[in-house]
Amino acid sequence: MEDLRLIERTVLFPKTKNTKPRRLFLSNIDLSLLGHHEHVCFFHTPPNGMTFQRVREILHDSLETLLVPYDFLAGRLVPSADDVGRLEIECDGSGIVVVVARTDCRLSELGELCELKPEFKRLTAFLHDEGEELKDLGDLPLLRFQVM
Questions:
Q1: Phi, psi at residue 64, to the nearest 5°?
Q2: Count of the separate structural domains present in the chain
């Protein structure tokens, strides 16, 4: 995985812009999970004949379509207008981050994929910006994808 390299970092937006921005209330359960990031990795070999570029195009198109009914995923966390100290999601279509990276490593070289290994964290190295921990929550996307 030493040859992992960034190909593209883009922000995707819903295919159709919601003309009415809104705020989404977060429950106490939602708020208790705010500091928790979940990395979920899916490993698939593309179907025969499908190029890496085509996989990227399909993912981008699917995510832009998904963001229409699930517009909150393209929103940002903001302080509540009504309740001091509480956060809400501003559903304003700010977008989601999609990263495309490449490696010449084969899935078989990664070993057992069900076991948690520290080197797997390197696979998602491009999902976060340098100095991101210093940014305001309202500047951080709620959803990020990486394709390799």
A1: -60, -35
A2: 1
Nearest to 102, CA basis, from 140, 52, 143: 52
Residue 117 in 3-state DSSP?
coil
Has residue 65 got a pLDDT over 90?
Answer: yes
Q: For tokens 């700010």, name the residue.
A: 94
Residue 118 has what pLDDT? 76
Q: Where does the chain have alpha helices with state H?
A: 28-32, 52-66
pLDDT for the residue 131? 59
Q: Is 31 left (phi over 0), alpha (psi -120 to 50) or beta?
A: alpha
CATH code of the domain covering residue 108: 3.30.559.10
The boundaries of the domain holding residue 28 are 5-147
Residue 119 pLDDT more than 80? no
Secondary structure of the chain: what % helix, strand, coil (to 5)?
Answer: 30, 20, 50
Cβ-Cβ contacts under 8 Å for 75 (sequence gap 6 or more): 24, 89, 90, 91, 92, 93, 94, 142
33 token code pair = 């999970």
